[in-house]
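Give me structure tokens for this 74-residue protein.
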Amino acid sequence: MPLVRVRANKDLKCPDDKIHVESMLGGRYRARGCGRQADYHSMCDGLQCSVGREGEEPAVWRDRPDPGSLESLR
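Here you go.
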């Protein structure tokens, strides 16, 4: 949620203390402030997370082999 707040601060052109962030299902968030609203999606890979505005292409994570494949044993 902190990353959503930082992004909303820029997108909504609104001070942090005036932004309200609501958590929704599936790693989605809605931010409201200064008469504006924006929806965001989040994706995490371990401890690394990224936030994008709804309608933007989500971040692509590095390809990983399936856990049962021979490549995962290397």
